[in-house]
Amino acid sequence: MANNENSPKIPHSHTNDENQDEKLLEPFNYILQVPGKNVRAKLAHAFNLWLQIPEEKLSVITDIVQILHNSSLLIDDIQDNSILRRGIPVAHSIYGIPSTINAANYASFIALERVQMLEHPEATSIALEQILELYRGQGMEIYWRDNFTCPSEEDYRQMVIRKTGGLFMLAIRLMQLFSVNKDDFTRITAILGLYFQIRDDYINLNSKDYMLHKSYCEDLTEGKFSFPIIHAIHTRPQDKQIIHILKQRTKDTEVKKYCVSLLEKYGSFEYTRQTLKDLEAEAREELKRHGPNQFMDDFINSLSKM
């Protein structure tokens, strides 16, 4: 399996036999064979232009965040009945649900073990706070889906800040433990979390390139209340077609295409594009407030390309 310098490192516990860990973490290591976007690691390096923490601390923190992120993907795929992840079959379709859940949970505790390695009295409590936020956000998203309850845009934004922004914030808060820079980065972190998730929602429903890596409009099959869907439902509350399509958890391509046409017709894609432009502008304003950062500028530029 590929494990180049740009891909997440294969974890193991420092209190266990590495050979046994290799067996326990097979589902986890499986998804590492196709590297992700490494957004969280790139973001941490961009923030470090402001925070200036030692490289060895930064390396441990990026490992912690990447491990937690990848372990959450294993659980996400089970919860969403996903078929593909990064263009290959999901881990639980290869290794089964029990081993995949165990590997994900075990990896999460390996991440916490590494938090302790930072040797800072506040590190563990920060990690627990942000992991709790992650699961609160994830839990609400599942609750809405499984109870066919369309959230308000405000509730959606709060969920994203917890779920997607939670790991962003974990990295920043841990980094600040070792930095003289104690600026409040909560707002820019929330904006970037929103931008990243809303962009992902948009691409899932409106990008031909994305179809090569995930099944077509997978969010519709999952019954997910993504950003464009929420806009459409609240814009046309009298029209129940989209909510009924979500309830079907359909795999029918023609039905999905019809739903996409409704989203286009109701202006939901246009609204999503405008929201992304607004968030990008807000992020750049925050960038100015915190001072020049070419890495962060490049990071935002890379996200704005769809």
How would you describe what is shown here?
Belongs to the FPP/GGPP synthase family. This is Geranylgeranyl diphosphate synthase. Its EC number is 2.5.1.29. Pfam families: polyprenyl_synt. GO terms for molecular function: geranylgeranyl diphosphate synthase activity; metal ion binding. By secondary structure, the chain is mainly alpha-helical. The chain has a single domain, classed as Farnesyl Diphosphate Synthase, CATH 1.10.600. Helices cover 71% and strands 1% of the residues. It contains 16 helices and two strands. The protein has helices at 18-24, 26-31, 39-51, 55-79, 91-95, 97-117, 123-146, 153-176, 186-206, 208-211, 218-222, 227-235, 241-248, 253-265, 268-290, 294-303; strands at residues 84-85, 88-89. It has a two-stranded antiparallel ribbon. Helix 8 (153-176) packs across helix 9 (186-206). The two termini are 29 Å apart. The model is unreliable at 1-7 (pLDDT under 50).
**How many alpha or pi helices?**
16
Q: Strand fraction band?
A: under 5%
Biggest sheet strand line-up: 1-2
The number of distinct β-strands equals: 2
- Overall body shape: globular
What is the level-2 CATH architecture name?
A: Orthogonal Bundle
Give the helices and strands as they follow along the chain.
Answer: HHHHEEHHHHHHHHHHHH
Most strands sheet: 2 strands, antiparallel
InterPro entries: Isoprenoid_synthase_dom_sf, Polyprenyl_synt, Polyprenyl_synt_CS
EC number: 2.5.1.29
Protein name: Geranylgeranyl diphosphate synthase
Organism: Pissodes strobi (White pine weevil)
